[in-house]
Write a structure and sequence with these properties.
By secondary structure, this protein is α/β, with parallel strands linked by helices. The protein has 13 helices and six strands. It has one domain: Rossmann fold, CATH 3.40.50.300. Bound molecules: 3'-phosphate-adenosine-5'-phosphate sulfate. 3'-phosphate-adenosine-5'-phosphate sulfate binds next to helix 2, helix 6 and helix 12.
């Protein structure tokens, strides 16, 4: 099977090498003007990369229309993209799905800015479930039940969603990390773009913000071959079996999970997220009283 573990986290040889992960963790130097787009997979990575690309271009869509997303915002843990990251001129836009413990140690003494995007883990799981069916070299996700158990136990690529989120949330007091959710982007993309600009110290006028919002819409990204995954060759990804720009909605988990599966997920969520001092939009809408504890620290 094309998988290996690095420090207890599952990776796929399709994209990652042990020596690259070690280099990124220990030797990769973040620069003070780097902007890093950090997510657990299927949480809105490409969407945020598009938003950040457009902000850096002051709303001008030429860059996103002409340069593949992974060249604009390369994933540092993927060997050939790491090379792009090293070669791109500053200010660099970088992406990663790495958990905090594997993130470059140089972050601790740098002013690089991290935008950490989270998404309802039920939707993350459902999006992953569909997406993994497209990868020719990877194990089929199996039944929903089987995949959910792998997801809840963290036996999936990039490890446990819960550990990923908890590891990054522990860093929330740092001034150079900004937390935002996929749900917030959906609810108010314009307001989200304004908040991100503020965090990055970028002044965009209202016309430029309007252009960011317009060009980062689901439909625009779906039609943009630089951002919609269609450039990934058939030998790697079977585009007839899975679509990268699939639905782009919140709450699609309700269409896949049975009531029993959703309750199993809720119980695991409660157990794993106990003590996390931050509340998330999906905790207010699951409808189970145990998910609706009063907010201790809300970032929205
Ligand atoms: S990856 O492969 O881990 O980098 O995937 P990632 O980009 O994190 O997440 C893919 C999901 O994000 C949806 N998406 C969007 N939703 C709304 N608006 C825009 N512009 C957008 N762009 C990407 C994409 O459709 C995947 O979600 P699902 O639920 O599968 O549709």
């Amino acid at each position: 099977m094309p998988y290996f573990k690095y420090k207890g986290i599952l990776f796929t040889t399709e994209f990652c090498l042990e020596e690259t992960l070690s280099y990124v963790e220990n030797d990769f130097q973040l620069l003070d003007d780097d902007i890093v787009n950090v997510t657990y997979p299927k949480s809105g990575t490409h969407w945020m990369a598009e938003v950040l690309s457009l902000i850096l271009s002051h709303g001008d869509p030429s860059w996103v229309q002409n340069v593949p997303l992974w060249e604009r915002a390369p994933w540092i843990e993927i060997a050939d993209q790491l090379q792009m990251a090293l070669e791109n001129p500053p200010p660099r836009l970088l992406s990663t799905h790495l958990p905090f413990q594997l993130f470059p140690k140089s972050f601790l003494h740098s002013k690089a800015k991290v935008v950490y995007t989270l998404r309802n883990p039920r939707d993350v799981m459902v999006s992953s479930y569909h997406f993994f069916k497209g990868f020719k070299e990877l194990k089929d996700p199996g039944t929903v039940e089987e995949f959910m158990e792998s997801f809840l136990s963290g036996e999936v690529v990039y490890g446990s969603w819960f550990d990923h989120v908890k590891g990054w949330v522990e860093m929330k007091e740092r001034a150079n990390i900004f937390f935002i959710t996929y749900e917030e982007l959906q609810q108010d993309l314009r307001g989200s773009v304004q908040k991100i600009c503020h965090f990055l110290g970028k002044e965009l006028n209202s016309q430029q913000i309007e252009s960011v919002v317009e060009n980062a819409s689901f439909q625009k990204m779906k039609d943009n071959k630089m951002s919609n995954f269609s450039l990934i060759p058939e030998s790697v990804f079977d585009h007839t079996k899975a679509k990268f720009m699939r639905k782009g909605i919140s709450g699609d988990w309700k269409n896949l999970l049975t009531v029993a599966q959703s309750e199993r997920f809720d119980d695991a969520y409660q157990e794993s997220m106990r003590g996390v001092n931050m509340t998330f939009p999906w905790e207010r809408i699951t409808g189970r009283s145990s998910c609706c504890s009063p907010p201790s620290h809300s970032y929205v």
